[in-house]
Task: structure prediction
Amino acid sequence: MKNVIPPVNNDAYAPDIMAMRVENVGVAKAGLGFIQTFMLAVLAGSFIALGAAFYTVVMTESGLGFGPARMLGGLAFSLGLILVIVGGAELFTGNNLIVMAWADGKVSHRQLLRNWGIVYIGNFVGSLFIVFLVALSGTLDFQDGAVGTTAMSIANSKIALTFEEAFFRGILCNILVCLAVWLCFSARSVIGKIAALLFPISAFVALGFEHSVANMYLLPLGYFAGSDSVTITGFFLNLIPVTLGNILGGSGFVALTYWLVYLRRK
Result:
């Protein structure tokens, strides 16, 4: 009797299976040791910063018009989350999905806040690391200083946001980011994961929504580029509402919603 090779199943995972996969990953993330969590968070901050650096160059003198330029910039920024998802790293905004495991009682309050705290700080360290490297590399001087001008413009526009604008843009941003991560759990291949996240990430960038970890790079970079608007006070007045919005958008509108639909005990 000949051996029969079973067919490869390339179909996407169904949403109820995705929910269980997200929950299991959340439990695993919450159980990681300090050093592993912190180093993976530093990597994630560096990855998002590299995507933001790519975005800054692409947006410089693009000449494509408002919408097409922002769409192209969003595709460039997607590099950051591709590196996080495929390379493996701990990103604060994506880790808001751990709330699914928390709501199911499989992760404690302490474990959740511990993960978020370590990852947030690690993301900040990784972002600043890339800021210094980019500032020292001369990248801001590209195109006769036009890249530096773009970096200042991006930072100034973020500093100019009111608390309410930053907060609500943070909510909208992490709805899309967590949906991108959620969709990746449907994929069975690397190509599938990349395809799943490209449009949600491109959309949040094109729409001008606010991502706390990206701002950990973009605001300090604007300072190094010569912006007078970026101060320590202005930095935190942007980062605080954006972070709070990110938590509400990812944890409340995505994680808890899918938990209620697929995982809530009857």
Summary: Residues 15-263 form a domain with the Glycerol uptake facilitator protein fold (CATH 1.20.1080.10). The chain has eleven helices and no strands. The chain has one domain: 15-263.
